[in-house]
Design goal:
The chain has 361 residues and is an alpha/beta fold. It has two domains: 173 residues, 3-Layer(aba) Sandwich (Rossmann fold), CATH 3.40.50; 133 residues, Rossmann fold (3-Layer(aba) Sandwich). It is built from nine helices and 14 strands. The strands form four sheets. The chain has a six-stranded parallel sheet with strand order 2-1-3-4-5-13, with helices on both faces. Strands 7-6-8-9 form a four-stranded parallel sheet, with helices on both faces. The N terminus is likely disordered. Bound molecules: alpha-L-rhamnopyranose (RAM).
């Protein structure tokens, strides 16, 4: 499942809020009602039950709100969403902040609500900061699907998870342990301090490392805020502060690319191990030049595609978000909703010199 979407491209590029000018239709919510919305004060009555045969209404107004624009990872995910939205004959509005800060998405959600977005696909910079804005959107009839980085589950209808958090955490620790012989000082270069996804993975990485590799010591976690330059500087800072550092784990595509760039031009190249989550296209040169041996990720395009299909299924009333319901996600096939309204895309892939040229994203 790595190449099915590669030929598709965004119609107009993803370089700014200009894309937001794509016309949104008036909110009508396709005649559906919200399912059992336990704990949500979003306002709608819980009356609908799922109708798996319901038609996806044409012209649904989708919004894609990543943590930040101009992050290659989210640009790829947006391409996947664009493909799915085209398949269900909807309209897609890609919009968002340039910085991945905690509250930066709030005003974008408010605007989307005013414009009548019917399906909001978002990766949250913070588990709580956007909740009341999302509540308002849902009160107006919008379906909210988080993908990549969740909110509090009460603030959305579904979360599309790239893989299990345990699987993502363990893959990174296992790769690092293999490279440093299971022992020594390791630091984490994360994204923003509030990011739901990175914080979940870091907690699980710490737990798993303590159990499986007691001689591996995680000495620090620093935050590059998913900014290239800050991530680069934080890498430099780690190496200066911890002269015995054996490795850096960066569970963010922005962080790992910046750290690789720093290491590749420094005396630490090949001496300090680097792994984490990166896109093959950004990391290829650093695998080829010996800076990085292996790292992991899922296919962001498939993540965006699955999120959009989940939003369409919600808007159609095929699903309400309850555990056990199933829906069809186009070329990806059938998915089942798990506990806490979560849908899991699949397993992360590990990339190294042997397979990196098989991937193009
Ligand atoms: C960055 C973002 C995103 C994360 C990836 C791995 O692009 O922080 O949320 O899932 O890295």
């Amino acid at each position: 499942m790595t190449s099915f979407l590669t030929s598709r491209r965004m119609r107009g590029g993803l370089t700014g809020v200009a894309v937001a000018a794509m016309v949104l239709t008036t909110a009508a919510c396709g005649g559906t009602t919200r399912g059992e919305d336990e704990g949500s004060d979003a306002g709608a009555e819980a009356t609908a039950s799922a109708d798996p045969d319901a038609e996806i209404p044409a012209d649904l107004a989708f919004a894609f709100l990543p943590k930040q624009l101009n992050n290659p990872y989210f640009d790829i995910a947006a391409e996947g969403a664009e493909s799915a939205v085209a398949e269900v004959e909807g309209e897609l509005n890609v919009t968002g902040p340039s910085e991945a800060s905690a509250s930066s998405q709030v005003s974008y959600i408010n605007t989307l609500t005013q414009q009548g977005a019917e399906v909001i696909l978002t990766s949250a910079n913070d588990p709580n900061a956007i909740c009341s804005a999302l509540d308002q959107a849902r009160s107006g009839g919008a379906k909210v699907v988080t993908f990549d980085s969740d909110t509090d589950p009460e603030c959305r209808d579904l979360f599309i998870s790239q893989a299990t958090s345990e699987g993502i955490a363990q893959a990174q620790i296992d790769i690092m342990a293999e490279q440093i012989g299971g022992s020594g000082q390791v630091a984490i270069l994360s994204a923003t301090a509030n990011a739901t996804n990175q914080n979940a993975w870091i907690a699980l990485m710490e737990e798993y490392a303590a159990e499986e590799y007691p001689d591996m010591e995680i000495v620090a976690t620093v935050y590059g805020d998913d900014e290239d330059e800050k991530s680069f500087q934080e890498t430099q800072g780690l190496l200066q502060t911890y002269p015995d550092l054996k490795g850096i784990i960066s569970p963010t595509t922005v962080g790992i690319a910046a750290a690789a760039r720093y290491l590749s031009g420094s005396e630490y190249k090949g001496q300090v191990a680097l792994t984490g989550l990166g896109t093959p296209n950004q990391m290829r040169e650093f695998v080829k030049d010996g800076t990085v041996t292996a790292f992991a990720l899922w296919n962001p395009e498939e993540l965006g595609y699955l999120a959009a299909y989940a939003g369409a299924a919600l808007a159609a009333g095929q699903i309400t978000g309850e555990e056990g319901e199933t829906f069809e996600a186009g070329e990806l096939g059938e998915y089942t909703i798990e506990a806490d309204g979560t849908v899991v895309l699949g397993e992360p892939t590990t990339f190294d010199a042997d397979n990196i040229d098989d991937f193009d994203f």
